[in-house]
Amino acid sequence: MKESYIRLIQYLLGIAIAILILIHLAIFTSFIGPGYELGLSWETVSERMSSPFYDIIYTLLLFALLTHGFIGIRNILFEYITGYRARIAVSWVIWTIYIIILIYGMLPIIAS
Amino acid sequence: METVKNVKFRIKRWIPEEGRFRVDTFEVPVFKGMTVLEGLIYIKENLDPSLAFRRSCRMATCGICGIIINGKPMLACATQILHLNSDVLTLEPLKNLPLVKDLVVDHTPFFEKQREIKPYIIREGGEEEYWNPSREYLQTPEEVEEYLQFSYCLTCALCYSACPITGTNPNYLGPQALMNAYRFIADSRDEGLLIRLDIVDSPDGCWGCHLAGSCSDACPKGVDPALAIQLLRRKIIERDLGYIKAVKGAPLAPPLPYVEEAKEVKPPKFTVRGAQKKIKEIMEKFVEQP
Ligand code: SF4
Ligand code: SF4
Ligand code: FES
Prior knowledge:
The complex is a heterodimer. Chain A is mainly α. Chain A has a single domain, classed as Fumarate reductase/succinate dehydrogenase, transmembrane subunit (3 helical TM bundles of succinate and fumarate reductases, Up-down Bundle), CATH 1.20.1300.10. Chain A contains 5 helices and no strands. Chain A has helices spanning about 5-30, 35-40, 40-50, 50-80, 85-110. In chain A, helix 1 crosses helix 4 (about 50-80) and helix 4 runs antiparallel to helix 5 (about 85-110). The model of chain A has no long low-confidence stretch (mean pLDDT about 90). By secondary structure, chain B is of the alpha+beta class. Chain B has 2 domains: about 5-105, Ubiquitin-like (UB roll) (Roll), CATH 3.10.20; about 110-240, Fumarate Reductase Iron-sulfur Protein, Chain B, domain 2. Chain B has helices at about 35-45, 110-115, 125-130, 140-150, 160, 165-170, 175-185, 195-200, 215-220, 225-240, 255-265, 270-290; strands at about 5-15, 20-30, 65-70, 70-75, 90, 100, 105. In chain B, the strands form 2 sheets. A 5-stranded mixed beta sheet of chain B has the order 2-1-5-3-4. In chain B, strands 6-7 form a two-stranded antiparallel ribbon. The longest helix of chain B has 17 residues, at about 270-290. Chain B is globular and about 65 Å long. Chain B starts with a strand and ends with a helix. The chains are: A mainly alpha, B alpha+beta. The interface of A and B includes residues 4, 7, 11, 80 and 87 of A. The complex binds iron/sulfur cluster (2 copies) and FE2/S2 (inorganic) cluster (FES). One iron/sulfur cluster binds near residues 163, 164 and 213 of chain B.
């Protein structure tokens, strides 16, 4: 993939994260949610997790944050790992860890 | 000239035979307006003839005298000692370039990277005009403004030495080459936009930059490579989103009458004075034209 496509995805994810985090904060606070204390209670969280709307929001947030973070880590590593083959090897390692964490993060969403 | 004070020059010299640095200290009598380069010349002429450093123009034009002065990359010929407000100057060779001797570094990697971005006007199918230019390309003052500040570059490599990414990634094109890529892309005479964007679209190209701006801070000519790199990124994203495609370069100026007439002047058949007379006649005719 062209480097610029990766960077474009990175920019777009940055915008998406800003919007999703605002929604996330709004849910936890009394802005549209039940307030900070109640918003974190077991009942509220489990109730929320059974709603498809929140499932979608949290799946998107998890995906956006993980992808953005891993692209960032890749960029930092590429400053130090400069050989072509070494970069391919690093990419494989990074994206394998990414998939594992993504699946792990999805488990509670799928289970609810 | 009257000596204002004595200043210590602590010079970090690269000793190639030993593969290490050695610090030598010299006392230099400084007069008003004296530059660091003049201090170095004083040391070479009076204290240590073996000291190696580079200089040529002595007027901030050739860009060869770059060294690190008190931690900052600067031109030795354009830096007055008294302006540094210090009784001790620490001088080192530029960073991120192979060392040769004392303060001398090898600029080859720097120039090779510049060559990679094709630092010349690219014209599709313009071979003939390229090798045998007959006329100038038309450009408005506004079009010149688009790249003017970037054309002031001296290729002194101060920005290259200041860049932290160049320090960690030897494949990184570096601020000067990237800035120069933008300089030609922004030139309305050029048609190499897509070719150059492909070259710089890489983690070792414009995406490697951290935008800390050390390059722009170091530039003695006020060029802003960090800005050029951001503008390159914008161009690449615009290309990806389909906003820009191949560009058409500025047209050639129409032939001027006196140029055609001047071609008739055949030097072997004239004496120098005769040829001058003929050219004068043609020019006068041209000036008389409305
Ligand atoms: S702005 Fe970019 S090119 Fe300039 S010094 Fe920083 S990393 Fe290097
Ligand atoms: S951009 Fe400035 S610092 Fe860099 S090589 Fe050109 S003149 Fe020197
Ligand atoms: S000697 Fe030419 S720029 Fe300093």
